[in-house]
Amino acid sequence: MSSTTAQSQGTGKSHPNDKSTFDVKKFVIDLASGGTAAAVSKTAVAPIERVKLLLQVQHASKTIEADKRYKGIIDVFKRVPAEQGFASFWRGNLANVIRYFPTQALNFAFKDTYKKIFVAGYDKDKDFWKFFGGNLMSGGAAGATSLCFVYPLDFARTRLAVDVGKGATREFNGLIDCLVKVVKSDGPVGLYRGFMVSVQGIIVYRAAYFGLFDTIKMMVSTDKKKLNFFVAWMIAQVCSFA
């Protein structure tokens, strides 16, 4: 046994040339499964998301006059298809799907990377609080890093969803048109308006979600085998409502 190998085993750290430090197959699986599931689910609930956004921003929107504001959920569901067309319920959905795919994929990918920084070396039984804290930090850091890449899409999605025009009266004609017009009027920094508020929220949310998920998963799992789908799904639901 060489001194390098002995030192590596003695410290419990992997050798720099250890290929297991980055699992390409796992990365691709996370990218495909997480992104596809997110795209399907977001498309299914897109009408509800747009109704929510319209009710949230209508009092601050310059495109919605005071006498034309929506009175409630039912009013939005009645007027949107009548005034803008039924397909307008999915306005901004393309940006949301494109945004959500890399968001989910990058969250899981970056989380594993950050776990090697914050969690490596801590035993879940002997160093529980350090292990738990490391999971929280890796989740929060993953969420913040991912948001840096996809926030312009999140911003565009909101702007498109609250555009209540029809035909020539629309402020934006699509995702690309929205991004181009915002950059022309406000510069690239315009695509990151509201970023500081959003990143604080995503750090807290992802820290809680991934931190709890990974910690509970390790506590429930009694061997090195992967949890079955149902158990993993149940843990994810508990973390989502926590």
UniProtKB/TrEMBL annotation:
One protein family per Pfam: Mito_carr
PROSITE patterns assigned to the protein according to its UniProt record, in alphabetical order: SOLCAR (PS50920)
GO annotations of cellular component type: mitochondrial inner membrane
Localization in the cell: Membrane; Mitochondrion inner membrane
Example GO molecular function: ATP:ADP antiporter activity
Superkingdom, natural source: Eukaryota
Keywords: Antiport, Membrane, Mitochondrion, Mitochondrion inner membrane, Repeat, Transmembrane, Transmembrane helix, Transport
Gene Ontology BP annotations: mitochondrial ADP transmembrane transport; mitochondrial ATP transmembrane transport; negative regulation of mitochondrial outer membrane permeabilization involved in apoptotic signaling pathway
Solcar repeats: 25-117, 130-219
Reactions catalysed: ADP(in) + ATP(out) = ADP(out) + ATP(in)
Record membrane topology: Multi-pass membrane protein
Keyword Transmembrane: yes
Quaternary structure, from the entry: Monomer.
Family: Belongs to the mitochondrial carrier (TC 2.A.29) family.
Described function: ADP:ATP antiporter that mediates import of ADP into the mitochondrial matrix for ATP synthesis, and export of ATP out to fuel the cell. Cycles between the cytoplasmic-open state (c-state) and the matrix-open state (m-state): operates by the alternating access mechanism with a single substrate-binding site intermittently exposed to either the cytosolic (c-state) or matrix (m-state) side of the inner mitochondrial membrane.
Annotated PANTHER family: ADP,ATP CARRIER PROTEIN 1-RELATED-RELATED, ADP_ATP TRANSLOCASE
Stated name of the protein: ADP/ATP translocase
